[in-house]
Amino acid sequence: MSDKEIKFPSIREDGLQLEEHRRFQERFWTVERWVWVGFGAIIILALLGLTGSGGPLARTSASLEGASIDYPRFTRWEAPDEILVEFEPGGAERRLTLSSDFAETFQLESVQPQPDRSETSADGEVMIFRVDPQSAAQVTLHLRAQNPGMADFRAAIDDGASVSISTFIFP
């Protein structure tokens, strides 16, 4: 046999003259189908809001005496997000206290409306808002996560008990 002769694959039982590695191909197809299932699961998680930025499970709320806080359950690192604080009708001056853990994890970009004044206490940063005592008021904190991972901080309204808030920050 010379170097220029072509070696043809043998004829298979089904009559085709192909050389293939059937066991490898079947394993590859199995792995490929499992990857499709994984991608489908990621899409479903994203639609539910478990990857941040929208969906029915992306946000949650905490009820406190005199207010409720709506915050992201999942957010993304260095992506803008917001916390909404809804004050129930009450006093003319309302206080929102955020623990020092909040400042270590989030950059507070703006507050709407601006607080009348803010103070630093042993509990953390205190923002004081002047509100109409006869109607509910809403405050929006525009923020940006500074580090990926789990963020835990505490929030309190006026001099009431604080509540623990947890947000997972995706990289």
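the 2nd protein, sequnce then structure:
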Amino acid sequence: MTTEIIKNIFRFILLLLAQVLIIQNINLSSYIILLPYVLVILILPFETNRLIVLGASFLLGVCIDYFYDSSGIHASACTIMGFARYYVLKYIAPREGYDVGVRPTVEDMGLEWFLRYAGTLILIHHFFLFYIEIFRASEFFKTLLRVILSSIATFGFIYLIQFLFLNNKRRA
């Protein structure tokens, strides 16, 4: 239990630093923005208390806002994502429920399940983030394209991160 908490804190710090020091400086286009820091929220254990998920989501968003100087939009988007996580997990839960000790990763749950889980939450996060950022109805379709392309790129990058760094069973 304690080692899992330490691992999650380490992931939090590592992904936060990677986002603000490296990934923030990658410019693919104005339509594709990589935001893999949401992986912190995505791979929290199933058993994590909802208030802890909300608190960690808010703290992650505040930290990103501090470095991006974005006045709370990341904090609100991460909190919305943390709130929606419970309902998405409940909606896509297996009939027998989630096993204790299993993590919401591609390795433990499979690609199809992770695509539905992470894809939905990333879309919710990006939709809220980009529409709050632009806050204009006149650019609805342009922003929608940005949401879709950024969500696909972020999911692909998160999948790559999991493939490279979180694959424990095959290396042991």
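Residues 9 and 135 are 33 Å apart (CA to CA). The mean pLDDT is 89.
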